[in-house]
Amino acid sequence: MNRRERKKEETKSKLIREAMDLFKKKDFKNTTMEEIAEIADVSKGTLYNYFQDKESILSAYFQLLIQEKRLDIMEALEAQKTIEAKLDILLDINMKMLGDDLELLIIYFKHRLHTFFDNNPMDTPQHSVKEQLLLGIISKAQENKEIRDDIPAFVIAKTFQFLSLNYFITSVYDQHSGDNEILKKHLIEMFLKGTKV
């Protein structure tokens, strides 16, 4: 990475940090892009060169969190032998890592769901860190004949992402559904029964 690229990454990180501080102090809804630019000591134009809106800053923050923990996550996943155990670990890690601020997490998931349809997944080879990890789990399970290989790995991975979003929503909003561990077990079981060889 050359000096110019390093400077851009430093600016981007600073913008994310300053925005997250404002989101936590003031709350997301009442923070403006102008305030973020002001507190980060950049012009509004510079801020908009990096992020189109507050939601994209929030998305970048959560992606950064996952990226920073990538090696630890991969190590935890590699220690597991079965796809069931790996998916269980992945869901646990997501809830623990992303669950610190529920309001921001809900906004993040809404944004991710909304932007999911912006690009055709068939045309988009780039995936988030979390998607790459999940795709790796699915591909390996297909190689090991744990799950069927007649369906493309990315289709199975996207299906699991939607199921895990349902798990998150149920965990957050449905207090009558019982234990989250049972919900998680049911989600994984339902997913794997549909992908059995």
Keywords:
globular, Arc Repressor Mutant, subunit A, 10 helices, 2 domains, Tetracycline Repressor, domain 2, 197 residues, 0% strand, mainly alpha
SSE arrangement:
Layout: H1 3-26, H2 33-39, H3 44-50, H4 54-68, H5 70-78, H6 83-98, H7 102-116, H8 129-143, H9 153-173, H10 180-195
Number of helices: 10
Number of domains: 2
Q: Give the % helix.
A: over 70%
Structural class call reads mainly alpha
Shape verdict = globular
**What's the total number of strands?**
0
- Named at the architecture level, the CATH assignment of the largest domain is Orthogonal Bundle
User: Largest sheet, described in full?
Assistant: none
Q: Overall mean pLDDT score?
A: 84
The CATH topology of the largest domain, please?
Answer: Tetracycline Repressor, domain 2
Distance between the termini: 44 Å
Uncertain runs with pLDDT below 50, 5 residues or more?
121-126
| Run of helices and strands | HHHHHHHHHH
Share of β-strand residues = under 5%
Q: What gyration radius follows from the Cα positions, in whole Å? A: 19 Å
Task: State the assembly state of the protein chains.
Answer: single chain
In the CATH scheme, the class of the largest domain would be Mainly Alpha
Q: Would you write up a description of this structure?
A:
The chain is mostly helical and 197 residues long. It has two domains: 51 residues, Homeodomain-like (Arc Repressor Mutant, subunit A); 133 residues, Orthogonal Bundle (Tetracycline Repressor, domain 2), CATH 1.10.357. It is 74% helix and 0% strand. It has ten helices and no strands. Helix 1 crosses helix 4, helix 5 runs antiparallel to helix 6 and helix 9 packs antiparallel against helix 10. The longest helix has 24 residues. The radius of gyration is 19 Å and the shape is globular. The protein starts with a helix and ends with a helix. About 3% of the residues have low confidence. It comes from Alkaliphilus metalliredigens (strain QYMF). Keywords: DNA-binding. This is Transcriptional regulator, TetR family.
